[in-house]
Specification:
It is a single chain. With 128 residues, this protein is an all-beta fold. It has no helices and 13 strands.
């Protein structure tokens, strides 16, 4: 059974940091790119980062470049999203997704792969 489980969310002050993790099971993580998405209340889901499988190439949305870093440890079946200098507008539920192929493919700021598996998400709240 394929599972993706996010951890690491919480309440942080502006300027703070979080390290989200996405623990995967039931499939071979090595073969797949993993995307990170977020959805704020009343807003559409947006992609924020992606890491490809073979070369580890990364992609970031313009809104998070320089603050978010995605990485992976295939041996631990885990993908991470380090978030620095958090802003109130980063408040959202963050989801990881996989089984959309080996590469991150982006067209005009949108990841166009069809991700077959999603995690339930972890809440990130940025507030003073």
């Amino acid at each position: 059974q394929v599972q993706l489980v996010e951890h690491g969310g919480g309440l942080v002050q502006p300027g703070g940091s979080l390290n989200l993790s996405c623990a995967t099971s039931g499939f071979t993580l090595d073969y797949y790119a993993v995307g990170w998405f977020r959805q704020a209340p009343g807003k559409e889901r947006e992609e924020v980062a992606c890491i490809s499988s073979n070369n580890g190439r990364t992609w970031y949305a313009d809104s998070v470049k320089g603050r978010f870093t995605v990485s992976r440890e295939n041996a631990k079946n885990t993908v991470y999203l380090q978030i620095n200098n958090l802003k109130p507008e980063d408040t959202a539920v963050y989801h990881c997704a996989a089984e959309g192929g080996p590469l991150c493919i982006e067209v005009r700021g949108t990841l166009v792969m069809h991700f077959g598996s999603w995690g339930q998400g972890t809440q990130v709240t940025v507030s003073s």
